[in-house]
Amino acid sequence: MEVVQTIAALREHVAKWRRAGDTVALVPTMGALHAGHVALVRAARGQAKRVCATIFVNPTQFAPNEDFASYPRKERADQDLLRAEKTDLLFMPSVEEMYPAGHTTRVRVAAVAQTLEEDFRPSHFDGVATVVAKLLLQALPDVALFGEKDYQQLLVIRRMVRDLDIPVRIEGVPTVREADGLALSSRNAYLTAEERAIAPALHRAITDVASAVARGAAPARETAAAAERLLQAGFQKVDYVAVRDAETLQPVGDGSRPARVLAAAWLGRARLIDNIPVTPLR
Amino acid sequence: MEVVQTIAALREHVAKWRRAGDTVALVPTMGALHAGHVALVRAARGQAKRVCATIFVNPTQFAPNEDFASYPRKERADQDLLRAEKTDLLFMPSVEEMYPAGHTTRVRVAAVAQTLEEDFRPSHFDGVATVVAKLLLQALPDVALFGEKDYQQLLVIRRMVRDLDIPVRIEGVPTVREADGLALSSRNAYLTAEERAIAPALHRAITDVASAVARGAAPARETAAAAERLLQAGFQKVDYVAVRDAETLQPVGDGSRPARVLAAAWLGRARLIDNIPVTPLR
Lengths: 282, 282
Description:
Two copies of one chain form a homodimer. The first copy, chain A, has ten helices and ten strands. Chain A folds into two domains: 172 residues, HUPs (Rossmann fold, 3-Layer(aba) Sandwich), CATH 3.40.50.620; 90 residues, Pantoate--beta-alanine Ligase, Chain: A,domain 2 (2-Layer Sandwich), CATH 3.30.1300. By secondary structure, chain A is of the alpha/beta class.
């Protein structure tokens, strides 16, 4: 695995692959890699001849009061893991390489970006859309893979790629979970042992909501009850538990369209998010 | 010259050229073509083997009170002119092809976009940046050419391309003028014979400002005097006459950096814009 820091070097590698007729998959990450990222790399391997991973903790998607400075960074372990997964190339740009002096352009996705996470992290998705657009245009891969754990992010990226005609296929990869249901996340590292024992309550809560809604229960009552249970379990604050249209993220209607349960809640220093589909009963 | 309406057909043509090893130049226009556009196509011919022109009157860069509906459209004459200039391909998408239902993403360039035109046409450059990003990503040309007549637009596009890492070279092409100095513009068609006789006062005014500033005069006094002369000549309203840094469009400092005189003023139904460099005296 080669490791490059500049856009020019990234493009040289991709151009070399293109000349050889190879297809290219991109796996953008913020590092602090775990089995969820491994699933992305393995899915990428199944989609293209060459796999390029990127590690960039993107400052523009963090608000000033958020955890940009303390976000976990473990370059050595990340590189070992990517090497073990036979990643072809790792792109690790500096902040200056991505945002040189004078950089002012932002990509803004409305609609699907203007709810849920946006209510608690305003401008977060502007930062995500902008950095993902840049990475896609730097590498121009055939396909790019993103985890369903960040479900709204996945929808925002799909919308952006379609709206700007970026010539790339976007693939979502199912969430990887611990045995007790906790969705893997780099931010799980923030949890104390005690909090870690409480954390699976988030997945249980959305699973309960999904089951009840699938049986015909009213979403509003179920989500309110789930939020209450999270607080009782030891979460300090529930940003949202919501049942939404799986494609538009608008409130669900008559139940004829696929729905998704999404939640975000605070446990100690960690803001945990998770989501699952509402699977209609047979 | 082939004429295509869909992004898919555009991409097929470009892919065919790429397979043959041909380079590609893109000339985005809003149609109602004149000698200024011919200069763009000829410059394009000098930069690449294949030339693709686009005609799309982009609704998102017009405000509701502006001239989208009445903007001149003359498809037949445009096609004849492009054919005579040996354009290889003309892309003429519908509004639905460019903005299908659900389209919500906008590209926003700050800094250089947030002055002059923006003060009078808020969100105009969001529309320009978004549509140009789309056209560039649809065609992925080696080079795209834009007229210096829309000088701020050229700077906005350069900034966007650099900031989003769109892999294309942007070339500015000097303004083409009538014998009396009037910059060619599709909107000159709005002028009555009487207004057409007055119109060259705009070019004279900015030329006078540029000469005076080059000789060391204070920009503020010269631009105020020029605006006054435009009103006396018969212009109804002067949006701005300004001397700005030629790269940042910020107010000029000590005269050590290249400067540009830019102006916009109303003459009848037409809002005319023009700009020229301040050329230092030897």
